[in-house]
């Protein structure tokens, strides 16, 4: 391999990962400010708490990223997240064997919810926005049936394993890393993963090239359900309870969209990835932590978060406008 080829490969890699790298730098700066503002510094408890909060949104953002890569949008990820929370607080209890079966049941429920979304989008030929808006109401209804009132429990040993530190590293971060290494990367490097980018870039061109569009979309929405359910399982480990609250699911859905845009994923599909979405999620969570540290009036906190959300979503539109302006040169 020549020096010019290696240079070209590095340039391509940096261009592809630019959004994720920018989100990483923004998070590092913001978290550094957050740590400096702490009177006792960044203790292990503070880092662990921040990691747990960030990991919840990170998993939902990972779920949102997959449909967006194909040119879609999943408005039900927050409700699948909440449904998994309510289900986990019901069945992830008892002996280690029963707990393991409960975990499998929660993740399987997420896969089924995602598959249902994919089937409706692909074979029902509905717009993803409309289809997932409808299914989100269904998933909320199921969650409410499971948990009419907040409550429930979860196996204490499993919850401790998921929320404490392992060799000084928050277990929630290890969960994120495991999800990336064992789920995202194999998917990203598979035929379906590569095809997802092609479908998001141009579905018509992908179809003409023989890409199995139905399988691509089904796999994307199904894996989205898995990641959202994993987040709901982690929430149960943190809170030791389940709660069906529409506002909670809605907040996670909206913030997941902002997180993936901050992480460099285009809302129009075809570019990005879950790694950037993870850092985007931690940026979103650190914004809230900074507002608390600097004693911003709680009444004004939604205003600041809303501004960040608007700015994040606008980034995607600016990228599209930039591309369109370049295309004007060829008219």
UniProtKB/TrEMBL annotation:
<dbReference type="Pfam" id="PF02653">
    <property type="entry name" value="BPD_transp_2"/>
</dbReference>
<keyword id="KW-0812">Transmembrane</keyword>
<keyword id="KW-1133">Transmembrane helix</keyword>
<feature type="transmembrane region" description="Helical">
    <location>
        <begin position="303"/>
        <end position="321"/>
    </location>
</feature>
<keyword id="KW-0813">Transport</keyword>
<keyword id="KW-0472">Membrane</keyword>
<comment type="function">
    <text>Part of the ABC transporter complex LsrABCD involved in autoinducer 2 (AI-2) import. Probably responsible for the translocation of the substrate across the membrane.</text>
</comment>
<feature type="transmembrane region" description="Helical">
    <location>
        <begin position="100"/>
        <end position="123"/>
    </location>
</feature>
<dbReference type="InterPro" id="IPR001851">
    <property type="entry name" value="ABC_transp_permease"/>
</dbReference>
<comment type="subunit">
    <text>The complex is composed of two ATP-binding proteins (LsrA), two transmembrane proteins (LsrC and LsrD) and a solute-binding protein (LsrB).</text>
</comment>
<dbReference type="GO" id="GO:0005886">
    <property type="term" value="C:plasma membrane"/>
</dbReference>
<feature type="transmembrane region" description="Helical">
    <location>
        <begin position="55"/>
        <end position="88"/>
    </location>
</feature>
<feature type="transmembrane region" description="Helical">
    <location>
        <begin position="129"/>
        <end position="146"/>
    </location>
</feature>
<keyword id="KW-0997">Cell inner membrane</keyword>
<feature type="transmembrane region" description="Helical">
    <location>
        <begin position="218"/>
        <end position="240"/>
    </location>
</feature>
<feature type="transmembrane region" description="Helical">
    <location>
        <begin position="12"/>
        <end position="35"/>
    </location>
</feature>
<dbReference type="GO" id="GO:0022857">
    <property type="term" value="F:transmembrane transporter activity"/>
</dbReference>
<protein>
    <recommendedName>
        <fullName>Autoinducer 2 import system permease protein LsrC</fullName>
    </recommendedName>
</protein>
<keyword id="KW-1003">Cell membrane</keyword>
<feature type="transmembrane region" description="Helical">
    <location>
        <begin position="167"/>
        <end position="187"/>
    </location>
</feature>
<feature type="transmembrane region" description="Helical">
    <location>
        <begin position="252"/>
        <end position="283"/>
    </location>
</feature>
């Amino acid at each position: 391999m020549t020096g010019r080829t290696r240079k070209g490969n590095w340039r391509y890699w940096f261009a592809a990962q630019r959004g994720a790298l920018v989100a990483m730098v923004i998070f590092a700066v913001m978290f550094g400010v957050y740590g400096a503002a702490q009177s006792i510094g960044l203790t292990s408890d503070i880092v662990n708490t921040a990691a747990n909060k960030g990991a919840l949104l990170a998993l939902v953002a990972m779920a949102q990223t997959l449909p967006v890569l194909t040119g879609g949008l999943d408005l039900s990820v927050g409700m699948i997240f909440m449904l998994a929370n309510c289900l986990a607080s019901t069945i992830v209890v008892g002996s280690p064997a029963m707990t393991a079966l409960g975990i499998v049941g929660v993740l399987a429920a997420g896969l089924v919810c995602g598959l249902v979304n994919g089937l409706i989008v692909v074979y029902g030929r509905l717009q993803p926005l409309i289809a997932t808006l409808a299914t989100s109401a269904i998933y909320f209804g199921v969650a409410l049936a499971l948990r009419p009132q907040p409550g429930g429990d979860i196996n204490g040993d499993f919850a401790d394993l998921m929320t404490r530190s392992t060799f000084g590293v928050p277990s929630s971060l290890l969960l994120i890393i495991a999800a990336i290494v064992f789920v995202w990367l194999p998917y990203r490097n598979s035929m379906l993963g590569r095809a997802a980018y092609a479908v998001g870039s141009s579905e018509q061109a992908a179809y003409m090239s023989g890409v199995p569009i139905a399988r691509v979309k089904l796999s994307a929405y199904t894996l989205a359900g898995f990641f959202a359910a994993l987040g709901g399982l982690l929430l149960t480990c943190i809170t030791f309870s389940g709660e069906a609250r529409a506002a909670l699911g809605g907040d996670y859905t909206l913030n997941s969209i902002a997180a993936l845009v901050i992480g460099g994923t285009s809302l129009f599909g075809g570019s990005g990835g879950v790694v950037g979405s993870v850092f985007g999620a931690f940026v979103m969570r650190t914004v809230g932590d900074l507002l608390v540290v600097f004693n911003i009036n709680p009444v004004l906190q939604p205003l600041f978060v809303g501004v960040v959300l608007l700015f994040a979503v606008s980034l995607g539109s600016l990228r599209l406008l930039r591309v369109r302006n370049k295309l004007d040169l060829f008219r």
